[in-house]
Amino acid sequence: MTWSIIAKDDLTGRIGIAVATRFFAVGARVPFIVAGHGGIATQALVNPYYGIDGVTLLRDGRHPREIVQLLTSADPGRESRQLHVLDHNGQIAAHTGRDCIDWCGHLEGRGFSIAGNMLAGPQVLNETANAFIASHALPFAERLIAAMKAGEAAGGDKRGKQSAALLVHGKEEWSELDLRVDDHPDPLAELERLEGVSRKHWAVFRQFMPTRDNPAGITDRATIDAGIATALANQT
What we know:
Layout: E1 2-8, E2 15-21, E3 31-34, E4 38-44, H1 48-59, H2 64-73, E5 81-87, E6 92-96, E7 105-109, E8 112-116, H3 123-134, H4 140-153, E9 163-169, E10 177-181, H5 187-200, H6 202-205, H7 221-235
Antiparallel strand pairs: 1-2, 1-8, 2-9, 3-4, 4-5, 5-6, 7-8, 9-10
Helix pairs in contact: 1-2, 3-4, 4-5
């Protein structure tokens, strides 16, 4: 009852997933990302273990085709599931079970994978893809949202809308952006608003957080406050 896009940003290597549905709290169950390895979206009659076990397989360097085969072959309910995987090399694989509700399917392009079920029609995925390609000049998070909004304008989930989410990882294990709209009359619009809010403080603050290369991060509050102030001044 969902459609989602998994993509890799060629400029930065970031992996991102955006998803929307007529169901509660989609961000809690669909998107999974392993920094430096790839992303997985598990949907339809969602099996959370596709994500939980799938990220382990991504860390092990398994090809997306092998990941999909291993996950679905172990699941007697696989014909009611939908799953797609993109790794850090841009390799893609997907599964749409025969009991998923129409319209359902998957498409892929250079550096992105899109899948959905219970949609208004194939145009939802097509327009999501077209918008993602056309918006290459946008920052990555905004580009993912723009793609999803185009899919929604083409019909989206045929039952309506309720929740949406955006998950982005860079090279660290913690997410650069993890936004969830769990229950809202216009979830993608609210997701877009939250992404804009994130640029005012969070996108600046995260550069001071601990990393593997700098385990302490920046802890001097004057430095942090000055960095945020400078960024806010540049935004006006």
